[in-house]
Amino acid sequence: MYQASLNGPGAAPVWAVGALCQAIADSLQARFNPVQVRGEIAGFSRAPSGHCYFSIKDATGQLRCAMFRRAAQNLDFSPRDGDLVELQGQLGVYEQRGDLQLIVEKLQRAGQGSWMEQFLRLKERLQAQGLFAAERKRPLPAMPRGIGLVTSLGAAALHDVVTALQRRAPYLPVVLVPALVQGEQAPASLVAALHQVYALAQQPGPHPPVDAILLVRGGGSMEDLWAFNDETLAHTIVQSPVPLVSGVGHETDFTIADFCADVRAPTPTAAAELVAPARADCLLQLQAWAERIERLLQQRLQNQQQWLDKLALRLGQPGKALQTQRLLCQRQGQQMAQAVQLKLKQSALTQQALEANFHKNFQRQLQQRRQALALLTQRLELLNPEHVLQRGFAWLTTPQGQVVSSVGSAPVGTALQAQLADGRLDLTVVQPRLL
Fold first, then answer.
1. Contact between 411 and 429 (Cβ < 8 Å)
2. Closest of 248, 275, 272 to residue 259, by C-alpha
3. Which is more confident, 318 or 407?
């Protein structure tokens, strides 16, 4: 690490530069680290890599500091030149330049420790009471009709909010209720201002003048923003009848008001931008809606025109429909005439067949009747009493024409007539004889 001096025994050793820097760094590490320092920031800068470089100074001294990205990501505020801070880190030597520097591991505003403890205790208590619950938070109105603004008249936040609203939505009315935003009287002033805005928001009528509220303040130290960590103010914020936006401090600043509000904005300007839709965006949206409505109307008109064209085609050619019906009637008439002719032919053939069958049946039946009559005639002739008389028999009757078939019916003296084959004899019974 070092060599004996060329000037002889007892002389100081000769160090290599790097070795000497390393030895000094080792001595600092053993003697001081870790170290805590209080002072004012000077020459603060943040490299693209995320590392921060600055100096910490007071009236009697100055020390170079480096804060690497890993530690810088844990900062809860944006360091600026002139901020009084407390930091903790490791003293060392930057060997390339031989500079003494402090590698910062933790950085906070001076006195922040006690403020932070109070903040964390209040946050825990209010969170347990449900003031930070996500389910009670409301979305901002898409098109607000009036904005309530609570801030200080002399604050830069007022200018930032008004400028943003005029740029994005110059048509939007704004009701300003001034309040203190710093100091012991600030919490009570903020509570009173919010109650005034709440009364405006709850006025009767179909169109309330306020349907969103901005609670804003510019950046500052934790002590400067302490009014927004008031417990009474927290309960007042959650009582808002309309959505409330908290825009207090810078992006890295957090207050109890941020957790109680419906929406937390990183800056006052961002709060105004959140609640007021840009006029250009609204016009673009209106134009898009108008184009969509026009497109839908055109489509509807085209559909109706096509429907009318179809109706016009049907109404514009009634002769065609009539001709179709006429042809249909002719075709049906021809089919009917053909059916009638066919039916007549079938009836004529049937009639001829019936006539032929009737003549045949009549002749057959007539012949059968004649044969039966001839047979009956022959049988009747056989029964003719004249044939019997020709064989020598006589037919006896009384003068009255009664047939005498028994001896007992012709007593003695009875006049009888005997019919023979060729004539009639008058007889008188002389003596009846029984066989």
1. yes
2. 248
3. 407
